[in-house]
Write a structure and sequence with these properties.
501 residues; 75% helix; mainly alpha
Length: 501
């Protein structure tokens, strides 16, 4: 990053005397000179650690969207409507977001290896047990327990990568980690539809990931490295109180704005991931001479999701790494541009599904690709604008906000809008809605996602105004803390630094 373009930290909470500022500046330049900017500098155990985290993230998202791949069968067996089907995902996400702050607090203070192993074991056990339950409300309860287990992992895993790497290498490793999200989601659709069709029972689709989860627990316990917090940045900062952490995060404009933008991403991905296959199936099945099943649609939708992730996540990471060296605001601009490009592509896919076979898939691929540009970049931004001992709390806070106002409600909201529109679109309100009415109701409900994408893109572009300044404040705070650790006379210096983040 061009340091000349960065505004120095002139906060009114001046951290140290001038002599110490000179020492901190020298240390900051020294740290930047020591940064590992090539993957050839990464050790074998570090590669193994990232590989373990990616594997767990992959099966995490497989488990999350396996149910979406067999949603039609689930609705038939439990005899539920669209709003109740959306409620299954809402229960999962509510449990996920409510417990994320608890695990975030623990992740900044206790063994992350132990917390992650517990969480993965919990969601594997509850997924497996839930696959045998025949009561809808008890089944929904177990989906909530799965969300608790996944919250422990998703909150902590990115901070381990942050503590192992800095700079360009961190960005690449985060891209590898978040690459597993669209790929895992796609596998979820495929595993759910293929395993369910092969066994003649959709429940077998839920029984694949628990066995992979047992392997993941072993890898976390015996293979994964558990670095000291702030190790890669040689940070000597200690955790502050939870209240102070939250206050500092809410005063951090880059973090708050990117969190609001990511909330829009979560809203869109949650709704499209849950309802996408069902919507496409309804549209295609109305076309003449088209013979298609929901299992085949889920298979194609999963492959499309995987392909968009295979291209979009690395492309976003590459663009971010290349442009941020020349322009410090590039990360936020790329994320915003991706959402603004995705919105018209998704709108076109929704409009053409009724009349065309291939065009909706092509447009949806473009829309998802543009959406996937932001996964690795937004995670990197959220980490480098927050000091090391506060990052698990920051991840948890972002999960709470993005899911509370994002995908916790979007599947259910789309289902509710769809059910409401069925009543107004049906010529005879007391009769079962026709297929065209079901399709139109779901189509109009899903147009909400396009509007939300535009809002998210605007939030990301506003983030670009603050991102350079806030990143420099964190870099300098770390260097000043290290400079003052050699000066016993400044016993309260670190508290001043982290309070002034």
């Amino acid at each position: 990053m061009d340091q000349s373009s960065i505004t120095p930290n002139t906060s009114n909470q001046q951290l140290v005397i001038n002599g110490d500022n000179d020492s901190a500046t020298a240390l900051l330049h020294e740290k930047q000179a020591r940064r590992r900017d090539n993957l050839s500098d990464v050790s074998f155990i570090e590669y193994m650690t990232v590989g373990v985290l990616c594997f767990v993230n992959l099966i995490n998202y497989m488990d999350r969207f396996t149910l979406a791949g067999v949603l039609g069968d689930v609705k038939k067996e439990f005899a539920i409507r669209d709003d109740e089907a959306g409620f299954l995902q809402t229960v999962f996400v509510i449990a996920y977001m409510v417990f994320a702050p608890i695990f975030g607090y623990m992740g900044d203070r206790f063994s992350r290896r132990t917390i992650m192993a517990f969480g993965v074991a919990l969601w594997c056990i509850t997924t497996f047990i839930g696959s045998f339950i025949t009561n809808f409300y008890l089944f929904a309860f177990f989906r909530g327990l799965v969300g608790i287990g996944e919250a422990s992992y998703s909150t902590i895993a990115p901070t381990i990568i942050s503590d192992l790497f800095v700079g360009n290498v961190r960005s690449k490793m985060l891209a590898f980690f978040y690459f597993a999200i669209p790929v895992g989601s796609g596998f979820g659709y495929i595993v759910g539809s293929v395993a369910g069709a092969a066994a003649g029972n959709w429940r077998w689709g839920l029984r694949v990931t628990p066995f992979l989860g047992v392997v993941a627990v072993g890898l976390i316990v015996w293979v994964m490295q558990n670095p000291e917090r702030g190790q890669a940045e040689e940070s000597r900062m200690k955790p502050t109180s939870y209240v102070d952490d939250l206050k500092a995060l809410m005063r951090n404009p880059s973090f708050m704005l990117s969190t609001l933008a990511f909330t829009c991403v979560a809203f869109v991905t949650g709704a499209l991931a849950w309802w996408g296959p069902q919507f496409i199936f309804l549209g295609l099945s109305m076309q003449p001479n088209v013979d298609i099943t929901i299992e085949r649609v889920s298979l194609v939708f999963g492959a499309l999701t995987m392909a968009s992730g295979l291209v979009g996540v690395p492309l976003g990471a590459w663009l971010g790494a290349w442009l941020v060296r020349r322009w410090g605001r590039a990360h936020a601009v790329i994320c915003g541009s991706g959402l603004l490009l995705s919105a018209p592509a998704m709108a076109g896919a929704l409009l053409l599904t009724e009349s065309y076979f291939y065009s909706p898939f092509a447009l949806m691929f473009i829309g998802e690709l543009a959406l996937n540009l932001n996964w690795a970049i937004v995670a990197d931004m959220s980490l480098y604008v927050v000091i090391p001992p506060r990052r698990s709390t920051a991840e948890a806070f972002q999960i709470l906000i993005s899911h509370m106002f994002g995908d916790a409600g979007s599947p259910y909201l789309v289902g509710v809008i769809s059910e409401s529109l069925k009543k107004s679109l049906s010529p005879l309100p007391f009769e079962a809605p026709s297929q065209i009415v079901q399709f139109k109701a779901l189509q109009y409900a899903l147009f909400v996602t396009c509007f939300v994408e535009v809002i998210g893109g605007i939030f990301f572009l506003i983030t670009a105004i603050y991102i350079v300044r806030d990143k420099q404040k964190v870099d300098r705070a770390i260097a000043e803390a290290e400079a003052q650790s050699a000066e016993p006379s400044h016993s309260n210096a670190q508290e001043d630094i982290i309070d002034g983040e």
